[in-house]
């Protein structure tokens, strides 16, 4: 397995991992509220990023951000997810209960309104997925392995 220096992130890959981990960590079958708004805002911020790059034809329709090291995957724009009010709301219980709960293996399944998404886990899972994805990227020839290429 190679150890790439650079991590290349396209908007389709980034949106996919945000949606995947938000739905997977959500206590609801349909995922968290306002996921569509979060993805729209992420797309807007990605396209406005000063780090946005484009390849030569025929790949020029797939803009990307290239992170110069594997450590920089927790880039400020990924951490900026935590500043979005829609994402912060995912970390709150819908029933308003505060405090810790005690459960055992004999309890009934928990109520979804009593659960929440751990935002640190969300960001770490997205970053880990981007790193694993970068191992499948043919970075030497500047080819992007995504659904749009």
Structure description:
The protein has 149 residues and is mostly helical. The chain has one domain. Helix content is 37%, strand content 7%. Strands 1-3-2 form a 3-stranded antiparallel beta sheet. Helix 1 packs across helix 5. The longest helix is centred in the last third of the chain and has 17 residues. The radius of gyration is 18 Å and the shape is elongated. The C terminus is likely disordered.
Strand content: 5-15%
> Which geometry do the CA atoms define?
elongated
Q: Strand-and-helix sequence, N→C?
A: EHHEEHHH
| Residue share in helix | 25-40%
Q: What structural category do the secondary elements indicate?
A: mainly alpha
Short description:
The protein has 149 residues and is mainly α. 37% of the residues lie in helices and 7% in strands.
């Amino acid at each position: 397995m190679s150890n790439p220096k650079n991590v290349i992130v396209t908007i389709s890959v980034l949106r996919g991992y945000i949606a995947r981990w938000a739905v997977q960590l959500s206590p609801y079958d349909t995922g968290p509220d306002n996921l569509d708004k979060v993805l729209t805002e992420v797309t807007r911020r990605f396209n406005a990023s000063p780090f946005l790059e484009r390849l030569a034809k025929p790949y020029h329709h797939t803009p990307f951000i290239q992170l110069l090291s594997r450590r920089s995957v927790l880039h400020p724009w990924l951490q900026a997810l935590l500043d979005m009010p829609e994402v912060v709301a995912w970390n709150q219980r819908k029933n308003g209960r505060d405090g810790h709960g005690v459960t055992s293996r004999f309890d009934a399944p928990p109520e979804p309104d009593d659960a929440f998404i751990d935002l640190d886990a969300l960001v770490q899972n997205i970053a880990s997925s981007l790193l694993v994805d970068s191992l499948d990227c043919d970075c030497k020839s500047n080819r992007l392995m995504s659904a749009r290429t």
